[in-house]
User: Fold these one by one.
Assistant:
Number 1:
Amino acid sequence: MIDIVNKYQIIICRNVLNFLVKNEALKILNDLRASVQKEGYIIIEVFTKNDPSFISDNKFNSYFAEQELLNLFSGYKLIYYLENIISDPGHPGFSNPHKHGVARIIIQKPLNELVGQGVDN
């Protein structure tokens, strides 16, 4: 196995976690914490429970609660945060315009993060 601890200066995780079951998504978030270098950046975008599909048909596996990403990375320096309903003009597999509830966060890992600090599964 390749050692990925403190390896990356920046990690981008957009529109992936919603396809995983919640426990697996939380495990990935822990892996991101371990993999980014001190003072490195993590960019995450997830679907929230405000997404119309959560209310209507729960078509994705993981939806995040209001401010959940903020709470999960509370010890990190917050660079940017947005939680909103956005318009999607369409994409392969769903060409009609529609909306998504999203949370977007950019955080910076602190220089001295406490060992063992992380996302609870």
Number 2:
Amino acid sequence: MTTSILSDRINAAAIRFLERQGYKIIDPAWDIAEGQTGIVADDKGTLVFVETAASQAGSDMPAEDESDESRRASEGAVARWLATPQAAEFEDIPIRFDVIRVLVIGADRALLRHHIGRFGIAAC
């Protein structure tokens, strides 16, 4: 499976998971960085920016990068999204960073881990 196809399938699985949890998807293809997308969702009045990553069977669950550099990069990507017309309706709303990591086990099976509040307490 190519990286692009895997990324699309992981993003679709993450969206289905979030919707089942009651999240409203705002932007299913948030542009985090060159070649990397995530999901923007509303979780009961909190704007949630979700980064997704995956690995194939035989590998470990993808690791989370909790470095200051990673946090700055995430905050920069959020600031760029908030400057778009799509974000105009969101004012005075809490923001949270989440991570969904997926370990692909087979063609139709995966282990999904949702880390709510990636950097600790909700920001902004």
Number 3:
Amino acid sequence: MMKTIIVFLFFSLNCISLFSQSSVHEVMATSGNSYQTNSIQIDWTLGEVAISTLTGSGSLLTQGFHQPHYLITAINRLPADYGQIKVYPNPTTDQLNIDFAFTKKEKIELVLLDLTGKVMLKNTIVGQTISKNISLATLPSGTYFLSMKIGNQIFSQTHKIQKVN
């Protein structure tokens, strides 16, 4: 009877380890790079969390969660010579004004999101010089993100909007 219980526990614990979670260390950072010579390789990440610091004679080394295999995702900001966008007033009580002035006719996709990522408003407009008024009167007070995708090159710009009563 005792052998049966031990064998059962042994197989049960092995089955549990088969279904356990695995951890993947990732870093979201603004910059990083790798350099390599014949004798040394250096990988760095700006903004990584330091979990250990080693000091020696005249040197300092911090070790964190940096992984040498990384994926870079970039957001193309709207260049100043392409056009201008003004979003005002911020904070606002009920009306948000957006002025667009581009060097040529553009398609603009507007999306207003709440802090949970829920889409509160979605709108597409086309033009070169546009003044758009958005009513926020039906929305509760809080923080929202106004995201804009502009043109075929997918320039992206996000504004943090504060609605107050």
Number 4:
Amino acid sequence: MRVFAIVVAMFGMIWATAVLAQDAEAAEIEATINGQMEAFRAKDVDAAFEFASPMIQGMFGNSARFGTMVEQGFPTVWNNETVQYLELSDLGPRWVQRVILRDGIGGFQMYDYMMVRMAEGWRIDGVAEVKAPDVGA
């Protein structure tokens, strides 16, 4: 019985450590996304570009092209007003943070933010719009 209690206690400590580690990662990921959202609100594409991963930066080459893509392709991101954080998934080298963004005119859109850890911290490695499921009558 004593061995069982020790095993249960060890499992609890391991589980608690994992939860705390994910909470720390979540806080850093949210800070990264918040930083980019604030930059977009200020229409500071140079600052917003800094939150993108090297892969994304390489795809666009410069902040002006990146800003144009966001403005035209992701208007809710470009005109974001609030961010609500939903589930965070650890997929190994990439983590996915689901968010709901509200734009300045009251529209809502859900996105998955693909995140990668770099030496300098978390960076955004892609964004995918999450389509609402079709609802039949």
